[in-house]
Write a structure and sequence with these properties.
The chain has 188 residues and is mostly helical. It has 9 helices and no strands. Helices cover 76% and strands 0% of the residues.
């Protein structure tokens, strides 16, 4: 469990710099943007690697904190499609969906983590998905409080690409990749 927690601390620590230490982060970016991006990427990658390794090791022996509701798997499946669509278009050009949602990656992470919490009640999953849910909500609030103007939709085809790419990834994960990567098929 220590590996999972260390990964979560590193990953969310670096991701939270703008929230908890904005002036420090801004000074680092101003001083040397390349160095900051490199450090950020390295810490985030190490954290993500430790999260995956720690979760894979701990999930088989993690105690069950709660029994997921019977509808939990169905909720997860239903939330994953919009999560994949939003994640697929989060770094692409701005279409109507991205302009309306404003922060598709954060909303996608919130949907992904909430769905997985509804379907998994073991301590490893609660730590993993609960941390992502808490971070997603806190960061979304932080971003919204900055009062940045919403993006303007400039690429009408961006929505089509976002929906097609997200749906294709969703189908691949449901049918193949979730079982290959995590040893569990969402289909049972």
């Amino acid at each position: 469990m220590a590996i999972l927690i260390l990964g979560l601390v590193l990953f969310f620590g670096i991701h939270s710099m703008r929230i908890v230490a904005g002036p420090f982060r801004d000074a680092q970016v101003a001083a040397n943007p390349g160095r900051w991006k490199g450090l950020y990427a390295l810490v985030a990658a190490v954290g993500l690697g430790l999260i995956i390794w720690g979760w894979m090791q701990y999930r088989l022996m993690a105690p069950q904190l709660y029994d997921p509701p019977a509808w939990g798997r169905h909720a997860a499946m239903g939330l994953m499609l919009p999560a994949f669509i939003l994640l697929a278009g989060s770094n692409g050009p701005v279409g109507r969906i991205k302009a309306m949602v404003r922060h598709p990656m954060l909303i996608g992470v919130i949907l992904w983590s909430a769905g997985h919490l509804a379907a998994n009640g073991d301590l490893a999953s609660v730590l993993l998905f609960g941390s992502f849910l808490a971070y997603g909500v806190i960061d979304l609030i932080s971003v919204l409080l900055r009062n940045a103007p919403p993006p303007v939709a400039t690429k009408p085809l961006a929505d089509l690409i976002m929906v097609v790419a997200g749906t294709a990834l969703y189908v691949l994960f449901v049918l193949f990749l979730h079982r290959i990567f995590f040893g569990v098929s969402p289909l049972g």
